[in-house]
Amino acid sequence: MNKKEILEIRKQFTPRNCAITRICGCYVDHEKVKQMESKDAFLSLPEEEAFKYFDIFKKTLSGTVGKNMLNLEFPLDAEMPGGAQEFLLKLRDSKLQDDMLLEEFYDKVIAAYDYGENYYIILIHAMYDIPGKASDGMEMFDASDEVYEYLLMSICPVVLSKAGLSYNAQDNRIQDRIRDWIVDMPDKGFLFPAFNDRGTDLHSVLYYTKKSEDLQPEMIEQLLGAATPMSADTQKETFQTIIEDTLGEDGDYETVRNIHETLADLMEEHKEEPEPLTLDCTDVKKIFEQSGVPNEKMETFEKNFAENAGEKGQLQASNIAETKKFNIETPDVIIKVNPDRADLVETRIIDGRQCLVIPVDDHIEVNGISVRTISRRPEPGKEESSASE
Predict the structure, then answer these.
(1) How far apart are CA 195 and CA 152, in angstroms?
(2) Which H or E run contains 195?
(3) 3-class DSSP state of 188
């Protein structure tokens, strides 16, 4: 799913567009014991309560595609009888009316989800009558020819509110606030089936994780039956390793800077496309070549890429590019540079030592204090030349 398709589903989570038919929940304590279960027609919920659920569902479909929202495909064995996809399909087709299927689903989540505190499992069933679209992109609600029937699961941590004082309006006094258990925004979730090409894709599922580095492979493999993809953080580390292995000890500042600038330019070219930009071995090789990596270093590139990312591995550009910061670090100094002005920093040999050189204008701040630039002092015995000379 791309960001436009995800946004189309998110737009349903309003009173006007709501397509949710049923909502089920299971409250689990820190010992993995079910404390409460609920089953309701969603439209029967009080309005204020429904709004809170809408916020949770929108959050489950938020973040960056490829980082917080991962498109997963079911392997063939998951679609066989007894597989994870087949189970989810039966659960969807039951419209959450089968209590035995619901109990089995909760048990699967509890077994797979690694969390040591209380949490609330929310599962909804919805049926979205997909409107057709005219050539100009306008929706035609009277031209629908498909209904997208889906499940959305959200796992929300349940946390104890902070201790404090509160105002009691009835008694007109300040008193100790009553602490209660609050359902937080989701930590994990999924949308099944995926909504690809504005239609039902039974072979795919969209997985949500609040923290990109915490994918919880057990959730993906046991509950969804899919292979765990490389996380955004791992992709970034992999790309850095590929650079280091390819350049070796001869890697210089200018070449590394050129690689990041070439990658940033490529992302800029594709920023209007709905699909995230992914790079395979050939794409990354081209970036290295355009960035001036010597030919003799490129001889080992494909081997380095395969060893770190896999022969058919792909890296998402937004996960490996540094578009918001460009840091240069030494053991004692950290220089933070605007990524668009990384060219301001140069390397030079001065008095036999390798140095970083940064040109400055008339404005410098030291710990937030404005100071004047350093003026050139005349050599001993010589007076500074006047402007007229």
Answers:
(1) 12
(2) strand 194-196
(3) strand
